[in-house]
Amino acid sequence: MAGAKARIASEAGRKLTVVIDGRDYLLPAEKVLEVGRRPAITRVPNSLPALAGLMNFHGLAIPVIRLSGLVPSTKGGAPAPSRETRVVVYDEHGAVALLIDDVRQLTSGKASAAQSLDVAELLAAQFFEAAPLPHRAASQPADPHRETEADGDTRALLSFRLSGQHFALPLENVAEVLKLPAEVTGLPKGAATSVGMIVLREDVVPLVSLAALLGLAEALGETRHVVVVHFGDERIGLVSGLLTGVVRVPETSIDPVPAILQRGTGDAEIDAIARGDGRRPLISILTPARLFRNREVRAALAGQGVRETDMPDHRAADPDQRFLVFAVGDDVFGLPIESVDEIVQLPNAISRVPNAPDFIAGVINIRGKAVPVIDQRMRFQAAGGLGAKRPRVIVVTIDKLQAGFIVDSVSEILMVPTSAIRPAPSLPGNGGQIFDRVTTRGDDGAMILLVDPKELLDRAERDLLKRFQPTADTAQPS
Questions:
Q1: At a CB cut-off of 8 Å and minimum separation 6, what does 7 contact?
Q2: What is the fold, at CATH topology level, of the domain defined by 320-474?
Q3: Euclidean distance between CA atoms 179 and 108, whole angstroms
Q4: What pTM did the predictor assign?
């Protein structure tokens, strides 16, 4: 025991020499948890300049601090450009990651001429006082059965194009959506409707061609997505065309399909038809229950070990949570799918609102209602790229106020196990409260910031929107 105490006392006096802006500094070795190469860092919009973002540290989201922006300048010429190729995970009010240029050595520190770095003092003013450590509880996902002015008697649909036609699946039937991987494992002697198999989070998911299932020709060069639905206790991937977004269609605009129009070559059937409203074309609504009436598909699935069973309209209890993944500039975010009213393409004509803040692009007409539109590239200080050629508007309802958010693209619907979602650390800056949770994505452990829809508009901006929101008859049709 005495030897162990002596060893700990010896370690407590050692120093780690690190390089910041080309200069050597000393850190107390007993506070260093790990040293490694610069990992994938997720930027936090509207944060302080010294906050590089968040990184994944053994499943926890921890802040990454750019020390080059905090160390005091010294006389004797300009410092060397900071390369920030290394990171030191440091124990200061919990784990924080310090971006540095390099690590030199671990010494006793007595003979070193380098300056000792007081990390606590550097971080105190900007980080710990601005963002107290006890963070708020992560917000719960929105109630999918909530009743809002935007909902009414409408049906939420995930829409996509297939062979030049518009189709949709009820959003409640969709587990997740992803782009069709470049490599798909084929099946020997597979049915004409079978595309193959992919591995999705350690599960083998069979893929079925919707075009073949519906007797349609495959469009060459068309971007293809995989819409994952549940078939009993199994997951099935429906290979569709280009994802066009989420749309809410009034129930009064949905009609049954005349029997004479149903295809006779297979058992798969269209469930209903959503009539257009002048801006939206006819949409053929599909349901898994009718799609999997196809005998060939059921035989192929049975051959892959999938049990035949009645297909429920939706899963009654799903422990996973679904997020709409969207991009703003070079950054990727997730929004709970339950909070999304619909996704539309940004119209060419937007009604401007006099004297409104710069981040309010104007208003657009959504089914006869004037909806304020916020430019998220400006709000999130987006970096990289020149903006999307065809930006999208994600329409959400917050505290009975409906608003649209302009984003560059909507890429997928991601299903995340609840156990893989972590609370975000408390962060300084105006953006710290917007992102209440994080999750990892990809092999590099990069994190996705999960947006809290209730905090997407802070109180002042809500008041401004209410003040400047026009009546529906003043909005120009989009």
A1: none
A2: OB fold (Dihydrolipoamide Acetyltransferase, E2P) (2.40.50)
A3: 53
A4: 0.73
